Amino acid sequence: MTATDSQVRQAVVRPQVQPGKLFIGGEWRAGTRHSDVIDPSTGRPITTVAEATEDDVHDAVRAARAAFDSGQWAGMSGRERARVLYRVAELVRRRADELVAVESLDVGKPVALCRAVDVATTAGHFEYYSALAQSLDGAVRDIPLNAHAYTRREPLGVVGAITPFNFPLILSTAKIAPALAAGNTVVHKPAPDTPLSALLMAEILTEAGVPDGVVNVVTGGAETGEALLRDPGVDKIAFTGSTAVGRHTAEVAGAALKPVTLELGGNAANIVFDDADLDKAIGAVIKAFVFNSGQFCMAGPRLLVAEPLYDTVLGILGDAVAGVPIGDPFDETTVIGPMAGERQLTKALEYIDLARAEGAKVVTGGDRLDLNGGYYLRPTVIAGVSADSRVVQEEIFGPVLTVQPFKDEDEAVMLANSTPYGLAAGLQTQNVSRAHRVAARLRAGIVWVNDWALLDPAVPFGGVKQSGFGREYGPEALSAYTTTKSVVISLD
Ligand code: NAD
């Protein structure tokens, strides 16, 4: 890359986000401490962001509390809130190019995928919850007392939303859209590695008419997150991230008796049965582990293949995976960009070394791609792994696929369910009965058949086991941001 290219990239970001500032109570406030944001495709800094202190977080929570208590948002009718949320969806679509540029630069996402998935889904969240905001109804209950009983669905208050680095726009708006639809106010803390689109969204939400203080953004790392978790003014925690930090989040929320939603790590199995349409299945297998450079909680990094197909599938995969376009995320033809940061790349490379040390065979990839100083990892396929090895059991979170053979359906299900995680799973088969039978036996929050990562704001997702609890997306998410109040009126 030339210096001029780099300057162009910096110019993309500078006018569009408020570098170094926090968004509190509808105002941009300069931070007192700052950290660099790195372009993962070059390893060079692109801008700086503020690291919110405990006082900043407290101010943001106070602003959110004041906005909630004023009733200016919670007291609106659902239909009025819906209009604002719909305008957010329209603005996201209108400003799609800016959002794509910022998100791609920050995370290293290929622009074509970022446009089709991240930005489209972000608009979809606001559109979907704009519709649901209009039907947030209670129910009349028929009771054997001389009384009229009904329920009201009410917002919880201030939501503390903490999100990870890999899908900044999608994962934050999966919380913000339903939280706002229900009438809550929000303090959002994005990941320190990829905070830029949260700042741009703050601007878009304001432009759409979300009142001051209803959404606040505090950038920063673990210390900022900890301050948000522990702030007594927060009524609900919505956390997406690793299982380790999720466990800590649950402990803090538990001690304070706060409701919490946890979307945590994953390590999904993708099962290819011997009756699969092989061309289609290979497409699903590749998509499942290279999408977003494998930094996808719902990725399918564990491939289970019916024994008769094992050698054939490995042969096809070796060639096909090596041919997936990897490179500059700003090139429209790129499918695999860099990993989001040096820590993510180093972790994935350590797992590949571990697999080699455990005697596994790297079929393709296995090394860093030397390009512009970026954090590129060639998509990697590893065979000859044992079911209890660390590369199979643990979440690698990179474009790394392990492959294991299985004898029959029972063994496939047993292997698929054999890790501590339970976020997603998939199976490739042309047998409809098998599809339903196996889908029911897989311990996961979502199961895909004959494809991967088919997601929509209307379809709930979330985990079982160590992948967390609670659901995002769908009407389920709206429920998670409301509480039910019963009103019983004597008719005497
Ligand atoms: P992470 O757990 O390191 O960080 C997530 C967020 O928590 C970040 O904003 C971080 O700053 C914050 N944080 C860290 N320590 C904290 C503390 N002590 N108190 C409060 N907040 C704290 O995760 P990551 O590396 O950013 O993301 C990758 C992980 O996220 C993977 O495990 C992945 O599977 C998971 N993930 C899950 C889903 C899902 O929907 N289930 C989606 C995406 C990512």
TrEMBL record:
Keywords per UniProt: Oxidoreductase
GO molecular function, one term: oxidoreductase activity, acting on the aldehyde or oxo group of donors, NAD or NADP as acceptor
Family matches, as InterPro entries: Ald_DH/histidinol_DH, Ald_DH_C, Ald_DH_CS_GLU, Ald_DH_N, Aldehyde_DH_dom
All copies of domain Aldehyde dehydrogenase, residue ranges: 31-487
UniProt KW Isomerase keyword: no
Membrane-spanning parts: none
Keyword Oxidoreductase: yes
Active site: 263
Similarity-based family: Belongs to the aldehyde dehydrogenase family.
Protein name: Acyl-CoA reductase
Organism from which the protein derives: Kibdelosporangium aridum
Lineage: Bacteria, Bacillati, Actinomycetota, Actinomycetes, Pseudonocardiales
